[in-house]
Amino acid sequence: MPLLGPADALPHRPHRILIGGTSGSGKSTLADELSTRLGLPYTEIDSLHHGPGWTVRPSFLHDVQVLSARPSWITEYQYSDARPILLARCDLAVYLLLPRSVVMRRVIGRTMRRSLRRQVLWNGNVEPPLRTFFTDPDHIIRWAWRTHSLGAARVADIRERFPDLPVVVLRGRAEIAQWVASLE
Fold it and tell me: Where are the alpha helices (DSSP H) in 39-172?
């Protein structure tokens, strides 16, 4: 199956959707919107992954297997251990390949807001102080910068492993809006 773009019709109504993209690309925002529009339950994969103190929850992979076995769901294509489980069960992959400048503006703004407001995220976690950007090589802003270029390779990997899986690639806000509007 060829890659699909914002104007291409889906071959079927999806029930299990994976949304990929680097941090700050809008995966969770799109997942939430699709959940509302399509009436599919959305599970934020970060809520399954992050335990207290930013530790990996011991039940993470079990919880991903339980999620993937459901008849319908939307979640993000994240975490190398979870990707194969979810990919084997999804019936649509959507990948957000937004420009680095857009992603970085989003992830920096979001991280600053969360950190300054001490916003509680998953399982009681809060963003670390902003100064950790300088000391933590996996700080979310540094992570987004470092992983931004991996998107095209991840799309190619999905297509190679699951050639019959529809994969929609969206490259900006206008394409996302166009594609979402086409689902009505």
Answer: 45-49, 60-69, 83-89, 100-117, 140-147, 151-161
